[in-house]
Each structure stands twice: as C-alpha cells, then as structure tokens.
C-alpha cells in the first residue's frame, strides 16, 4: 500500500554490506555487497578488512538499492540501521552512514537489533508476524529460542546456546573437513551425498535433566573432529559426505526438537526460523515435518533472506515507523553486544560495546563525507 512506511535499512554487522528498501511488508530492493572472498583465506571474518570493505561499498550499495526500488532518497519515511550486536568497527560504518543520511535528508533514524531483524524479515514473505511468535534464531554468532509478542518492542529469550552457535559449529566442522569458509552452505551441499545415519554424533543437552531450551554444539564439534582425526591416524579415507550429513542431522535434530517443544509448552502455534543457518535445506525439511506433525505453522524466509541482508533491517525499521516507535537520537552509537531484548535503541548513549573512537580505524568519519557528497553536499 502506498501509505505504508517507506524505509531504507542498512546492515553492516559482519562481512555483508546490505541495503534494503521496504514499503510496509513489501520488499522493493535488497542490495548486498559481500567481502566474504576477502576473508576466505584467513578461515574467518577479519574485522578490519570487513570495516574497510563496508566503507568502500556503502554509498554505491545505497545508490543501487534506491535505483532498484525506483524511489528517491527524499521519499523515504525513515532510515534504519543495525546498531548491534556484531563487529564493533563494522557496525560503526553502517551507523555513521545511517546518521549522515538521516541528518542530510531530515528523516527519522532507527537503530535496530540485528537478531530481531532476522525474525522480522519473514514479514516480507509471509505477511505480519502473529502474536505471539516463537522464533528459533540460528546464525554464526547466535542460537536462541525467543518468544515475541511484538517484534518492535518485546522479545523474550527462552533459551540459548551455552557455548558455540549453530553456524559456528558448521564453520568449524567445514574447516576440519577441509571444505573452506563459510562452512554452512558447503556442508549443506556435501551432506546431500551422504548418509545422515552413518555416524551417531552426540545430541548436546538432550538428557531428561538438561535445560529444555538451551543448546550446546561444542561437544558435537569436538566429537566430529575426533572422529575425523581417528580416521586419518588409521590411514583411512574420511567419508566427508557421511560426516557432513551425520553432523548436520545432529544439529537439526536438536534445533527442531527443542523448537517444537518450546511451541507446545508455551501453547504457541507458529514457529519462525531465522538467521543464516535457517538457509540449511535439511533444517527446513525436518522443521516442516515436525511442525506438520505437531500442528504448528512454520514460517521460514527464503534462503537469501535468512543470511545477513539489508532488507531485514528495513523490514524492522518499517514496522517501527508503522507502530509509531520513538526514533533513535542523533547520537546513536553501535553496541557490539546489544542484548536481544533491546529490539531498538531509542535513547542516547548506548555505546557500551562499540569501542569508541578509532575502533574502525577512522572509517566512520570517511563514510560521513561520502554520504554528504552523494547527496549533493547537503539537504
Ligand atoms: O545470519 P548470518 O548470515 O550471520 C550472522 O549473523 O552470524 O549467519 C551466518 C552463518 C554462518 O555460520 C554460515 O555458515 C551459516 O550461517 N549458514 C549455513 C547455511 N548458510 C549459511 N549453515 C548451514 N546451512 C546453510 N545452508
Ligand atoms: Zn545475522
């Protein structure tokens, strides 16, 4: 609808410079510039490289998103940006760009939570989230079960990983198997050729006395590494596809079982799965089967919207405008450890984890100037 809020969202919490434009719950543009190839040879994301890449990509990616959406920057009703959690220097580039555009265009600014954005993005595909919604959030840095009454104001954690995140486990297992970085997509592909029942890897925190909604993937990761190591020591070939499939089965079994249990225990008949690991084909399949059996409606965005992107930030920003939430103040800062309960950052001085000036090697100052020039020197 033409009267729904038109919002541009900026995401720079890790290695993806994402800029999305959303009107209400309709996606108009989703531009992404990734520095993933620059990190691959280090086996993980290098924060300084990510910050520099964001700085170079920011203004062109914003321009590309505006062109694709066919809207003018002056038409926007707001600018949303990931304020945390994430890499401090990388976040600062996005926050600085968002502040510069908001100031130059005289638009309200919304600093939002990356994790809540991963949930809200599903509105672009399946319409407004029901209240309450159970969300299984599985990414490279987080694995949580969250109960939300209203994605703009109320997200309650029921459980989380006590050690590694699910995506981290995929990345580490891929490294052990020599499959490269990031590990999730390649393990997913390899697993299709393997037998998921060939190796009985452990299911963490699945005993009767274990916390029902918490996760643990560190023991599983170590079990995979030991199993592979034993094979190599014995001079035997490692059946990579079988290891990938059996590992993936263990992760998805635990995630889906606990998510369905949380829904049943709380009497919630909707489950949303978000975050990079929600792109996993086996997780999607198993979640569908188990939800169907339990009478739960499953909502999972298409894989391209599960991994980090700007559309998810725009989706949450648009919802903030729609629900009349207070914009962030002009001195909004990044918070690298922003808790999931802080869906948006309306008040001043939330700079706790950002590392202060210089955390990004001066990149945020540069992006201010670029944004200013891109808009023709001012308003
Ligand atoms: O949400 P995301 O893009 O970034 C973070 O906020 O962390 O998630 C990235 C994580 C990585 O660990 C990556 O290996 C994992 O999501 N991932 C996958 C798949 N695609 C990405 N894990 C399993 N299967 C996939 N198809
Ligand atoms: Zn993410």
UniProtKB/TrEMBL annotation:
Record-linked PROSITE patterns: GLYCOPROTEASE
Residues the entry annotates as binding substrate: 137-141, 171, 184, 188, 280
EC number: 2.3.1.234
Pfam family, one: TsaD
HAMAP family found in the cross-reference section: TsaD
Signal peptide: none
Designated name of the protein: tRNA N6-adenosine threonylcarbamoyltransferase
Binding site for Fe cation: 114, 118, 308
Essential cofactor(s): Fe(2+)
Subcellular location: Cytoplasm
Molecular function GO terms recorded: iron ion binding; tRNA N(6)-L-threonylcarbamoyladenine synthase activity
Record field: catalytic activity: L-threonylcarbamoyladenylate + adenosine(37) in tRNA = N(6)-L-threonylcarbamoyladenosine(37) in tRNA + AMP + H(+)
Domain Gcp-like: 27-314
Family indicated by similarity: Belongs to the KAE1 / TsaD family.
GO CC terms, sorted: cytoplasm
Cofactor note: Binds 1 Fe(2+) ion per subunit.
């Amino acid at each position: 609808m033409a009267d729904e809020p038109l919002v541009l969202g900026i995401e720079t919490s890790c290695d993806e410079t994402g800029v999305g434009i959303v009107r209400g719950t309709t996606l108009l543009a989703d531009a992404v510039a990734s520095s993933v190839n620059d990190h691959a040879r280090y086996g993980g994301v290098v924060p300084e490289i990510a910050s520099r890449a964001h700085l170079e990509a920011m203004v062109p990616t914003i321009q590309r998103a505006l062109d694709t959406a066919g809207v003018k920057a002056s038409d926007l009703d707001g600018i949303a940006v990931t304020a945390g959690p994430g890499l401090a220097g990388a976040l600062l580039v996005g926050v600085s760009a968002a502040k510069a555009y908001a100031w130059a265009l005289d638009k309200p600014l919304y600093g939002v939570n990356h994790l809540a954005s991963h949930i809200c993005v599903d509105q672009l595909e399946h319409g407004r989230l029901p209240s309450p919604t159970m969300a299984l959030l599985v990414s490279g840095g987080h694995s949580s079960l969250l109960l939300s009454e209203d994605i703009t104001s109320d997200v309650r954690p029921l459980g989380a990983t006590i050690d590694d995140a699910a995506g981290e486990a995929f990345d580490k297992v891929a490294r052990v198997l020599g499959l490269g970085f990031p590990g999730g997509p390649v393990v997913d592909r390899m697993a299709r050729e393997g037998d998921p029942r060939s190796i009985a890897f452990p299911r963490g925190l699945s005993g009767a006395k274990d916390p029902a909604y918490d996760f643990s993937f560190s023991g599983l990761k170590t079990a995979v590494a030991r199993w592979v190591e034993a094979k190599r020591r014995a001079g035997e070939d490692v059946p990579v596809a079988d290891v990938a499939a059996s590992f993936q089965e263990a992760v998805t079994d635990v995630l889906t079982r606990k998510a369905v249990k949380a829904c049943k225990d709380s009497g919630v008949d909707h489950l949303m799965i978000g975050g990079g690991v929600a792109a996993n084909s086996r997780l999607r399949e198993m979640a569908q089967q188990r939800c169907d059996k339990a009478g739960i409606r499953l909502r999972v965005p298409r894989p391209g919207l599960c991994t980090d992107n700007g559309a998810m930030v725009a989706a949450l920003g648009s919802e903030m405008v729609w629900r009349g939430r207070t914009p962030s103040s002009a001195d909004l800062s990044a918070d690298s450890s922003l808790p999931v309960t802080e869906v948006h950052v309306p008040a001043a001085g939330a700079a706790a984890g950002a590392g202060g000036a210089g955390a990004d090697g001066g990149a945020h100052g540069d992006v201010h100037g670029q944004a200013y020039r891109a808009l023709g020197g001012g308003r």
